[in-house]
Design goal:
alpha+beta, eight-stranded antiparallel β-sheet, eight-stranded parallel barrel, 34% strand, globular
Length: 887
């Protein structure tokens, strides 16, 4: 066995244990059989590989040791896996205060699979479970964290099982915390897996136990105010959910974050989805759902993958209700795919806001002949009527989920949903389900439709059988089960041009433009090595037969082969240009009044010069031929079963601005202009809610939508599995669209200025797990004598910045915030001078929000909305202690 170095920190003194310890520590393990809690719940990612769900309440202290030669014990029912948090805390309750001589845990790693050993682990003790004392630390010194290359990491990082821990302690405590930090590298950088926690009893009197108050920390419960991200957050006990019964059905997404409210709005149309968490691979049958809604709530429709068996008037607590009984028609599909989860389309009959009573639901099903029943409830809140202004040029898009194709539409439910989205200020539908009812409603409401045509993932056309001699031929060293079309054939064959044109023509009868999910990553650097591609490659590179023999076919899987990278980009460009050409020909044949576009969708690495995909998918070769493109990314999506507050701040500004700048740079260099407008236009599509427990909070999405606008993109859209959720989302959608509509002339037509600088002056976190945070951004625009300064705050809490604006003429100014209606000026009677603005003025920006300051003359305004320099400083002093404690 190779020597394993343990670095032990006891009372701040670090010593190295030079001997190799066993994989199970010696001594009496007083954690055996004891209860414990964790700060996050085990991930379901690895549960899918297990035949049975482990007992997560006992698995870490049951004494059962996982055995594995490969280090892959995460697929063992003796192991508990965590993912998605900055650190994983396991707190063992020993039942009473005990002397402690050592604390240990076991971890497994397999870098070739992207799972590496934790970076470090800390050990803490406590008497009350609130105040903890750090008594030791183990650092991973056997992996070289200076390496950044993933291939080097896979080759050199250690695999197998290692024992982490500290010994020779002389401490005490009832509660023992093992705090583990993920590796931060590999495919699963936040992964932490244990199969046992050991606490070794000390043979010394309590009087000799030592703890240092300098190393004391206090644990705080996760308690986010409702206004931080738009929802209440009280994460559910996922261990309990997975243990109770084979299926847990909840109103999604609210009940998955412990928020038991569903918000409607006066005059709004909303979709309530019921989402299952399954902990069995066995077949479910006879699935039924009963839902009791207050009489003040109207059931507009439901998805027809369920059947409405009855609707019966009833009473609850003396109040009128309607009880609806549904049965799920295809249980096999219900278990496999979200499209078959039941959902209800509802409206409030009330014309006033307020609480509308509780809604109740129950469900039943069978597994292997055994019947299960469960019930739950939630509060329905009716918010005031919501409406938003619609931008005239900036695209504000919504996604019509695939579940919409199963909507029971006898009551014109589709039109009610889309008409409501129009009142929120949306002007386009960007992908998802296409239907005649949806298209007709969009036409009626002035909404442009970007619809799919079954030409996705680069080299596949849905619904056709590709003859073997026309297929994409993989290199022998690559194994893929995707059946693609030879790229050379796709852009050179009249047969496929005809097929594509027929597809596009049909699509344009229910769409204005064609949307293609263009992600040919499964074919990049995988082939194609057919004779057609070989000949086309030789023609493209002008290689001799001898030169070709040296490079072909190995070049197709060599990421560093520049000749094939250029050829691959050339192939994709030919396909995209052909698709654009055929789309426009189809528009002519259909005698459309507009020129239809072929839109490609891609993720940010396709436009990042530092990524290998940029080389094999070079946009500069086809940007001059297309008028619209979509970039998608889900930077703020959070797994609610592993929610970690520390990972929330700074996500958008860390990842998105560079991607936006990369895409705009390609447009500038390789795009084209029409009437002095740059093309292709770029729409960004982020997510709102994806699958069961993945969520983007409403305020976070609001921030991201305005980031698109102020960053110079041409539009934003949503990717949303379950429609647009409740009124807390739609209110922020309307707010974002309204602000954009007010400012689109100065932002879209104005020149970018660099005369505004900001500096954070309030307490904020500096790093998350060693990663630097970018929490604020500032954008300035000038147009026809007007000047706008937009300041964004990507933190969850309010930030105060010192704003400096240079280059202003000598007069007094007030700063009017279009986002909040507040006015910032020196005093109640006078504005800031140009010199004072150049020196800097303090501006507060709420969490996940923007302030959009129009600089104008100091004139009288609503006194209640004025924020003077003195009042802002006073509020900063008041907020500072609270902001410090939140870090």
């Amino acid at each position: 066995m190779k020597k394993l170095f343990l670095f032990v920190m006891v009372l701040g003194i670090s010593t190295a244990l030079m001997s190799a310890p066993p994989l199970v520590p010696t001594g009496k393990n007083i954690a055996l059989g004891k209860k414990y809690t964790t700060n996050i719940m085990p991930t379901k990612k690895w549960q899918r590989l297990l035949k049975t769900i482990p007992n997560y309440e006992k698995i870490l202290t049951d004494g059962a040791i996982a055995k594995s030669k490969s280090g892959s014990f995460w697929v063992s029912t003796r192991c508990s896996n965590f993912s998605g948090a900055t650190n994983v805390d396991v707190i063992v309750d020993l039942g009473k205060e005990m002397p402690v001589a050592g604390i240990f845990s076991r971890h497994g790693a397999r870098p070739t699979a992207g799972v590496c050993f934790p970076r470090k682990e800390e050990y803490l003790v406590s008497d009350d479970g609130v105040k903890f004392y750090k008594v030791g630390e183990f650092k991973n010194t056997f992996d070289d964290y200076s390496l950044k290359n993933q291939l080097q990491i896979k080759k050199t990082f250690k695999a197998g099982v290692k024992l982490y821990g500290v010994k020779n302690l002389k401490t005490k405590g009832r509660y023992i915390m093992v705090r583990t930090y993920g590796s931060g590298v590999g495919s699963f950088g936040t992964y932490v897996g244990h199969d046992e926690i050991f606490v070794i009893k000390g043979n010394f009197p309590f009087s000799q136990a030592v703890r240092d108050d300098k190393d004391a920390v206090s644990l705080k419960k996760l308690d986010l105010p409702e206004n931080v991200l738009g929802y209440k957050i009280k994460p559910l006990d996922w261990q309990k959910i997975s243990k109770e019964q084979p299926m847990f059905l909840a109103l999604g997404p609210m009940q998955f974050i412990g928020d038991n409210e569903y918000h409607l709005s006066v005059g709004g149309t909303y979709v309530m989805p019921f989402v299952p968490v399954l902990n069995t691979k066995k077949k479910l049958s006879q699935i039924s759902l009963q839902c009791e809604l207050p009489a003040s709530i109207k059931l507009v429709s439901y998805n027809n993958s369920s059947r409405l068996n009855s609707s019966t008037p009833t009473k609850k607590n003396g109040k009128a209700y309607m009880k609806y009984s549904f049965s799920v028609l295809k249980p096999k599909l219900f278990v496999k795919h979200y499209m078959y989860y039941p959902y209800l389309v509802v409206q409030s009959k009330k014309n006033s806001s307020g609480k509308a009573e509780k809604a109740y639901y129950s469900y039943s099903y069978k597994v292997d002949g055994k019947k299960y029943n469960s019930s739950n409830s939630f509060d329905i809140i009716v918010d005031p009527r919501i409406s938003g202004k619609t931008p005239k040029r900036f695209l504000t898009g919504f996604w019509m989920p695939y579940q919409a194709r199963f909507l029971e539409d006898r009551t014109n439910a589709t039109d009610k949903i889309i008409s409501f989205y129009r009142t929120l200020g949306f002007n386009c539908l960007n992908g998802g389900n296409r239907s005649k009812a949806g298209f007709d409603s969009c036409r009626k409401n002035g909404i442009t439709v970007y619809g799919g045509a079954g030409f996705n993932n680069g080299l596949m056309i849905g619904g056709i059988k590709v003859p073997e001699d026309e297929r994409f031929v993989y290199h022998p060293k690559t194994k893929r089960n995707r059946i693609g079309i030879c790229p050379t054939l796709l852009y050179s064959s009249p047969k496929y041009s005809k097929i594509l044109k027929e597809r596009f023509t049909k699509a344009l009868t229910q769409a204005d433009h064609i949307y293609s999910n263009w992600e040919p990553y499964m074919f990049m650097k995988q082939g194609c090595i057919c004779e057609r591609c070989q000949k086309d490659f030789q023609k493209f590179t002008s290689l001799s037969d001898a030169e070709l023999a040296k490079t072909w076919p190995g070049c197709v899987i060599d990421k560093e082969n520049d000749e094939h990278n250029r050829f691959s980009s050339y192939q994709y460009a030919n396909i995209i240009k052909l698709a654009q050409k055929l789309t426009r020909e189809a528009g002519v044949d259909l005698k459309l009044k507009h020129k239809p576009d072929f839109m490609i969708s891609y993720e940010p690495s396709f436009v990042d010069p530092d990524k290998s995909w940029f080389k094999t998918h070079n946009h500069s070769l086809f940007y001059k031929d297309i008028d619209m493109s979509i970039m998608w990314s889900y930077p703020n999506a959070m797994d609610l079963s592993a929610f970690d507050l520390k990972r929330v701040p700074g996500d958008s500004l860390t990842k998105l601005p560079k991607a936006f700048a990369d895409a705009k740079e390609i447009v500038k260099k390789s795009g084209h202009k029409k009437a002095n407008v740059e093309y292709p236009k770029i729409l960004f599509m982020g997510t709102e809610y994806s699958m069961k427990t993945i969520l983007v909070m409403p305020k976070d999405y609001y921030f991201m939508s305005l980031l698109c606008f102020f960053s110079g993109l041409d539009g934003y859209g949503t990717w949303c599995t379950y429609f647009k959720l409740d009124a807390r989302y739609t209110a922020l959608n309307a707010k974002a669209n309204t602000l954009i509509s007010k400012l689109e002339n100065i932002v879209l037509d104005g020149k970018k200025a660099n005369n505004a600088k900001i500096k954070i002056i309030s307490p904020v976190p500096k790093k998350i797990s060693g990663r630097k945070l970018t929490l604020t951004t500032v954008k300035a625009f000038k147009h026809k004598g007007k000047e706008l300064i937009a300041i964004g705050n990507d933190h969850i809490a309010r930030i105060y910045v010192k704003l400096r604006v240079s280059g202003l003429s000598s007069r007094n100014y007030r700063l009017y915030d279009y986002a909040t209606g507040k006015v910032y000026q020196k005093s109640n009677t006078s504005g800031y001078s140009a010199k004072e603005l150049a020196r800097g003025v303090i501006i507060p920006v709420d969490g996940k929000s923007w302030t959009a300051l129009m600089i104008g003359r100091a004139v009288k305004t609503n006194r209640n909305m004025i924020r003077t320099a003195a009042s802002v400083k006073k509020q900063l002093r008041k907020d500072t202690p609270k902001l410090k404690s939140a870090i």
